[in-house]
Design a protein that fits this description.
This protein has helices at residues 26-44, 59-74, 93-106, 132-158, and strands at residues 8-13, 20-24, 48-54, 78-84, 111-120, 123-130. By secondary structure, it is α+β, with helices and mostly antiparallel strands. It folds into two domains: 8-44; 48-132, Translation initiation factor 3 (IF-3), C-terminal domain (Translation Initiation Factor IF3, 2-Layer Sandwich), CATH 3.30.110.10. The longest helix is centred in the last third of the chain and has 27 residues, at 132-158. The radius of gyration is 26 Å and the shape is elongated. The termini are far apart.
């Protein structure tokens, strides 16, 4: 039957009794299977996003970049925060570490430290990974206060 249709006879489940076979175009079947595997690998891949700070970063810039890092972490990506020193700023490594520590504290509710703070040439960096457990806890906590916030807003607007 397979030869008449110019297709292939493929054994699907050899361990079953009787063995299960299917008449299909094997080339097309393999192509679709590779496409599915590629899509799965693509969805599994975790990217490393980098956020760069200067030593004298302003609070608005810091908050803006921290919000972006929060979005990256919520999407499941790792985030590398880097403070780069220019010229004589390299003398003040402690100030760079303070910026990194402030960044870690700002994101500690949804992340964990993947690689601790370290110096890489003229840069000071840390890598944060998303923490699924903390995100779930945060999600449960956010649902209750959100409804309370709305009720308080309605009371305030009625006054």
């Amino acid at each position: 039957m397979a030869r008449e249709r110019e297709l292939d006879l493929v054994e699907i489940a050899p361990q079953a009794t009787p063995p299960v076979c299917k008449i299909i175009d094997f080339g097309k079947y393999r192509y679709e299977q590779q496409k599915r595997e590629k899509l799965q690998k693509k969805s599994q891949h975790q990217q490393l996003k980098e956020i760069r700070f200067k030593l004298g970063v302003d609070t608005h810039d810091f908050d803006f970049k921290t919000r972006h890092a929060r979005e990256f972490l919520e999407d499941g990506h790792k985030v590398k925060a880097t403070v780069f020193f220019r010229g004589r700023e390299i003398v003040h490594k402690d100030l760079g570490k303070a910026v990194i520590e402030r960044f870690i504290v700002a994101l500690e509710d949804i992340s964990k430290i993947d690689q601790p703070i370290k110096m890489e040439g003229p840069n000071c960096s840390v890598i944060l990974a998303p923490d699924k457990v903390k995100m779930k806890k945060k999600g449960k906590k956010d649902t209750k206060p959100a409804s309370e916030d709305q009720s308080t807003k309605k009371e305030e607007s009625s006054e």
